[in-house]
Amino acid sequence: MKTDITEKGLESLIVTVMVGSAAAATGGVIHDESVPYDGTGWLLGDAKDYDPEYGVDLAQLRAFLQATQPEAAEALDLDHDSPTRRKFLARLQGETTKRGTIDLLRHGIKHLSLNLDLFYGTPSPGNRAAASRASGP
Q1: What is the pTM of this model?
Q2: CA 20 to 30 Å from 105, out of 17, 89, 95, 115?
Q3: Domain boundaries, the chain
Q4: What is the CA radius of gyration of the chain?
């Protein structure tokens, strides 16, 4: 069995473990197919959805906000390249630069009259509020 020891091979291995599918990783043989990878719940994005101007995967951000905070997603006009969306993305980029990604995930972001949560942990057993957020609206 050939092992890919390049940087791309390492990246492919990491992606495989995160998403739980060798099909998601590209290039080279990256692991023994008999080794199961269940993934960590990570969703593999598409490079075309990444907006380098704002440093965000628009499709993933839109999907998350629509599933967890649909009213906010609609108010931010994330489906259209509009001034409203660009203003929010600029704010998100600025807050990421100022506070860092971890702080944004922990504390969310306030934009205009909206308080946006950017992360919901896996609900613990018996936590009804967290379970309702995880299942969507």
Answers
A1: 0.70
A2: 17
A3: 1-44, 47-116
A4: 18
3-state secondary structure the chain: CCCCCCHHHHHHHHHHHHHCCHHHCCCCCCCCCCCCCCCCCCCCCCHHHEECCCCEEHHHHHHHHHHHCHHHHHHCCCCCCCHHHHHHHHHHHHHHHHHCHHHHHHHCEEECCEEECCCCCCCCCCCHHHHHHHCCC
Integer CA distances (angstroms), 31 to 5, 18, 116, 125, in order = 11, 14, 39, 34
